[in-house]
Amino acid sequence: MRILITNDDGINAPGLEVLTEIATRIAGPGGEVWTVAPAFEQSGVGHCISYSHPTLLAQLDKRRFAAEGSPADCVLAALADVMADNPPDLVLSGVNRGNNAGENAMYSGTIGGAMEAALQGLPAIALSQYLGPETQTLDDPFQCARAHGPEIIRRLLAQANWGAVSDYRLFYNVNFPPLPANAVRGLRVSPQGRRQDSNFGVVPYSAPNGRRFMWVAGGSQHAPAQPGSDVMVNMEGYVSVTPMRADLTCHHSLAALDRALDPDLPPIDTDQLPDRKIEVTESR
User: Fold this and answer.
1) Which parts are annotated binding residues?
2) Count of C-beta atoms within a 10 Å radius of residue 249
3) By the 8 A CB rule, do 282 and 211 touch?
4) How far apart are CA 110 and CA 70, in angstroms?
5) What gap in Å lies between CA 139 and CA 156, rounded to an integer?
6) CA–CA separation, 247 vs 45, rounded Å?
7) Closest listed residue to residue 7, CA positions, set 61, 75, 59
8) Cα distance between residue 280 and residue 284, in whole Å
9) What is the chain's alpha carbon radius of gyration, rounded to the nearest angstrom?
10) What is the pLDDT along the chain (284 residues), one digit of tens a residue?
11) What is the rounded CA–CA span in Å between residue 81 and residue 79?
12) I need a surface site. Which of 79, 193, 200, 271 has the fewest CB within 10 A?
């Protein structure tokens, strides 16, 4: 098996070393593991691509490349250039330092890399390690992902649906709980959750030259979410597996919205609409 790995923490991130080990075990003795990862940290870039400027690609070693771009850029670089003559059988993204459960999934470059691979028609899995008080005392905070990652990937490859749903190919988001490997309670297939009263925000900062800057700060990663969601099963000690697709449509709202908006409604004659006065308050 030929496996492409990427991440959003950067080419030198410890989680990428963990993923290299996992991928090597999955690929087997006759397999190959190729790395195309961001030259610098790209956390929080989501599914961003460098559409308006070129991306520098540098070879660091045999089957190891760094791109000055996002995880999605790295996948594109691998498929269009590095591995163009013989594309990968599987794309793995991670192992992220920190969870990509709940609302974090919307910002995650780790998931962005897996999503781009799925859009390109390839099986893809994003892997992230939830951190907490119990991982802080470990010599290897990625111990849980390192120990359980290979078996979960094997199960997904053998049993999961790798086809398309509503024209978009599925990919999988795996989050490992913030625990030592031997304390994991099992695996749960779970939907993406949302932490209650925990959002990203901004911390403003004034530089010595008087210019205004800001730091983007995340909310509590241990705030509760819906029972059974990825967030909650992680905090209860389980590995979460969430099937995803690059389709933001709220499908269960389509029929009701169609009825509400009445597709047979005739066009409005704007000339017959009453005049509206808009009050403008001058800013001071």
Assistant:
1) 8-9, 43, 96
2) 10
3) no
4) 9
5) 29
6) 18
7) 75
8) 13
9) 22
10) 999 999 999 999 999 999 999 999 999 999 999 999 999 999 999 999 999 999 999 999 999 999 999 999 999 999 999 999 999 999 999 999 999 999 999 999 999 999 999 999 999 999 999 999 999 999 999 999 999 999 999 999 999 999 888 789 999 999 999 999 999 999 999 999 999 988 888 999 999 999 999 999 888 898 999 999 999 999 999 999 999 999 999 999 999 998 888 777 777 776 766 766 656 555 54
11) 6
12) 271
Distance of CA 211 to the CA centre of its chain: 33
Q: Any idea what DSSP says for residue 80? A: I
Closest CA to 234 of 128, 93, 161: 128
- For tokens 């959750």, the residue is 193
- Beta strand 32-38 with 2-6 is parallel
H or E element, residue 34:
strand 32-38
The answer to whether the beta carbons of residues 143 and 165 sit under 8 Å apart is no
Q: Which residue in 114, 113, 126, 135 sits closest to 221, CA to CA?
A: 135
User: 232: part of which helix (H) or strand (E)?
Assistant: helix 230-235
Joined together, the tokens standing for residue 175 give: 């989050």
Structure tokens at 114: 């897996």
Global confidence as pTM: 0.91
Q: Where do the domains of the chain lie, and which CATH numbers do they carry?
A: 2-252 (3.40.1210.10)
Pull the structure tokens for residue 250: 């709220």
Residue whose C-alpha is closest to residue 83's, from 94, 93, 74: 74
CA distance 64 to 76: 15
Q: Which of 14, 61, 15, 70 is nearest to 37 (CA)?
A: 70
Q: Which residues are annotated as a binding site for a divalent metal cation?
A: 8-9, 43, 96
Angle between the N-to-C axes of helices 143-159 and 14-27, in degrees from 0 to 180, rounded to the nearest 10 = 40
Do the beta carbons of residue 36 and residue 65 sit within 8 Å?
A: yes
